[in-house]
Structure formats: C-alpha cells, structure tokens
Design goal:
- 30% of the residues lie in helices and 21% in strands.
- By secondary structure, the protein is an alpha/beta fold.
- It has a 6-stranded parallel β-sheet with strand order 5-4-1-9-10-11, sandwiched between helices.
- The longest helix has 18 residues, at 215-232.
Length: 233
C-alpha cells in the first residue's frame, strides 16, 4: 500500500509561472483593494468591476504554463498516493498532470449561480452581466471570497489528517482558515516547508524540514529524494 502525501500549495508556486500573488504588502490585488474584488459586498456594489477583474485573471491564466515544481509533484504519483490541497484558483496543477487536487479557495475556470451555490459550471471565456444559469440567475466567479464559507475545508483537513508526509509549498500559512490545516497533521510525521522566506522554524513542529528555496529550486530535488526513499526500500 502506497504511503500518502498531502501537499499544501499557495501563491508562491504559481508566482514562478508568472501569476501575480494574491496581494502585496499594501493589501492590493492588481491595484485593487481586495475587498472590492474578493468579497460579496464588493460584488454587490460593483458587479461589473468584479467580473472584469476575474476576466483579466482568466486571460492571464491562458498565457502561463505549469513550471518545474508543478511538474515534479506529478512524478510522486507513481510512488505515493498524492493529494494536492491548493489555495490557488488557477489550474496549473491539473495542467501539469496532478490527478487529485482540492481547490479550497475555488477555481477561476468555473462559475456558479448567485442564487444556488451548487449550480457550478465550467467557464473559460469572459463572464459578463446578463450571463445567467438555467434558472435565470446571474453567474459569478466560483471563488471563495472573504466572509464566505470554505466548502472543501473539511475534505482538505481529512487529507492532511490521513497523510504520512506533508509538504507545504509557497504559502505563508498565515491566512486562515487554510493556515489551520497543518494542525490536522499526525504528530511526528515528516513535514517539509519549502519557501524562500520561511516563517517557521524547526521548533514549530516535530520532524520539520525547512527548505529555504523557491518552489522551482526546491521541489524537484525534494521529489527526487522522496522517490529514492521508496526505491531503496
């Protein structure tokens, strides 16, 4: 039976493919206050602005490709049972070939009904005012905005709880509720933290390995080592 690896990824992984991180130090996202474009209140005030914002993000997604870190993680699937839990709304993990991805903050290439959140549709083009579901309700980006519940958080917590190894990549682990996922990891299992500016130390968790590199620099080597461990046994 394969060992289980759960991989928690954040904006740092996508940044190396050319996707801008969620927000800068000023709390802005692409020049916008995040609450303007990532909250139900912002959407209610100015839906056209919000729809256009995500239309631009969708177009940008078509211009980038998975990087070496995305692709390296796929190699683990030949030797481990792998679950990727990502805060990213892009599809770069899937395009690289990852087969089991949980998007806890939603997906850019999906939309949903403003009336019934269970009506979710694939969407790759612009989304405009007047684009409605079959019941006649305006569609909105399938993104978890500030103040909204995180529907897949429980599934992500279970994946973390069941893991034999946890890898954290390109995320500060400061934004809740996503940051709470590491608390579900079993005591003593190997945890790898890959980030160029790691904000954790070996004292934070038992059996923690900190790799102070970017995802592209650190992940391929780590994957090679994890595969070699299996092959040696």
């Amino acid at each position: 039976m394969k060992k289980r690896i759960t991989i928690l990824t954040g904006a740092g992984v996508s940044a190396e493919s050319g996707i801008n991180t969620f927000r800068d130090a000023g709390g802005l996202w692409e020049g916008h206050d995040v609450m303007e474009v990532a909250s139900p209140e912002g959407f209610a005030r100015n839906p056209e602005l919000v729809l256009n914002f995500y239309n631009l993000r969708r177009k940008q997604l078509n211009e980038v490709s998975p990087n070496k870190a995305h692709r390296a993680l796929v190699e683990l699937e030949d030797f481990y049972e792998v679950t990727v839990v990502t805060q990213n709304v892009d599809d770069l993990h899937e395009r690289a070939g990852s087969s089991n991805v949980i998007h806890i903050h939603g997906e850019l290439l999906k939309v949903r009904s403003t009336k019934n959140e269970n009506v979710v549709l694939p969407w790759s083009n612009d989304l405009n005012l007047g684009d409605c579901c079959n019941e006649g309700h305006q569609l909105r980006p399938h993104i978890v905005w500030f103040g909204e519940a995180v529907p897949l958080l429980e599934e992500a917590a279970i994946a973390t709880q069941n893991a034999d190894i946890v890898i954290i990549i390109g995320t500060s682990m400061q934004v809740y509720p996503a940051a709470s996922l590491i608390d579900y990891a079993q005591s003593g299992i190997p945890i790898y933290f890959v980030d160029p500016k790691p904000n954790v130390s070996r004292n934070n968790y038992d059996n923690l390995t900190v790799i102070a590199k970017t995802a592209v620099q650190g992940i391929p080597k780590l994957v090679t080592e994890l595969i070699a461990t299996i092959q040696e046994n």
